[in-house]
């Protein structure tokens, strides 16, 4: 099966595979090795001639309790070589019941095939990427800190989801905590002022998706008293006077 071989080469190592190649029965199902909680992941289905026009139902279940962890999704292949796609999502509201589980079972049920076909897949709470940017790396006390946050999904596209922002001072005390949602993958904050009596040192802005504290992102900036360098400029003319009809005026500029 040429298509089957091509898929194995392309997907091998990154995808979990369910397949069989009996003389009377052939099917090929591929899915990501890792299912991210709350993210719709694609599962690909290809069936041999004996299973055409027969329904294939896919879902995720708990490895030990067999509780359903996603909605069931079905598809039908009507011709050989056709690849159908279904989307499965690990339901976030079911995770607190079972705790931090590392694996689930991807289950396939096919009309005309006895029993269920299963493969183990990893589960990750990682919901995407967060980037934090400040308008400068060093601030004086009483200055305003302006920052913005970019939220991206696993395809590095703008991702609108709820995330938590915390700000910690140099002593490690949290001075702000709030939940926000990005718009088109960008959140621009209302600037906050650094108090005049603040302890000098490294401050931190920490952000993570709600329920995904393990993948928090940190942006550090310094708070310290500093002044811009000053210098003196002196203009020294070659002559201490000049006439109105003088065509050229020569002088030297010194800066220190």
TrEMBL record:
It holds the Pfam family MG2. GO terms for cellular component: extracellular space. GO terms for biological process: complement activation. InterPro entries: A2M/Complement_sys, C3/4/5_MG1, MG2. One of its GO terms (molecular function) is serine-type endopeptidase inhibitor activity. Keywords: Glycoprotein, Protease inhibitor, Serine protease inhibitor, Signal. Residues 27-120 form the Complement C3/4/5 macroglobulin domain. The keyword Signal applies. The keyword Kinase does not apply. Belongs to the protease inhibitor I39 (alpha-2-macroglobulin) family. PANTHER family: COMPLEMENT C4-B (PTHR11412:SF144), MACROGLOBULIN / COMPLEMENT (PTHR11412). This is Macroglobulin domain-containing protein. It comes from Oncorhynchus mykiss (Rainbow trout).
């Amino acid at each position: 099966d040429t298509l089957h071989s091509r898929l194995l080469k392309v997907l091998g190592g990154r995808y979990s595979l369910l397949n069989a190649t009996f003389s009377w029965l052939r099917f090929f199902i591929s899915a990501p090795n890792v299912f991210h909680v709350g993210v719709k992941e694609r599962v690909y289905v290809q069936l041999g001639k004996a299973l055409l026009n027969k329904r294939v139902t896919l879902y995720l279940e708990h490895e030990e309790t067999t509780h359903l962890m996603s909605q069931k999704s079905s598809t039908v292949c009507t011709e050989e070589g056709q690849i159908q796609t279904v989307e499965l999502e690990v339901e976030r509201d079911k995770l607190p019941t079972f705790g931090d589980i590392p694996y689930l079972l991807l289950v396939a049920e096919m009309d005309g095939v006895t029993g269920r076909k299963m493969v183990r897949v990893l589960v990750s709470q990682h919901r995407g990427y967060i980037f934090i940017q400040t308008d400068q790396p060093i601030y004086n006390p009483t200055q305003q800190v302006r920052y913005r946050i970019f939220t991206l999904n696993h395809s590095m596209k703008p991702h609108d989801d709820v995330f938590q922002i915390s700000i910690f001072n140099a002593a490690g005390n949290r001075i702000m905590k709030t939940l926000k949602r990005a718009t088109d993958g960008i959140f621009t904050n209302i600037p906050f002022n650094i108090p005049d009596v603040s302890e000098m040192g490294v401050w931190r802005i920490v952000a993570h998706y709600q329920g995904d504290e393990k993948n928090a992102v940190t942006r550090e900036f310094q708070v310290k008293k500093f002044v811009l360098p000053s210098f003196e400029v002196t203009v020294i003319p070659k002559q201490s006077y000049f006439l109105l009809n003088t065509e050229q005026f020569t002088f030297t500029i010194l800066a220190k």
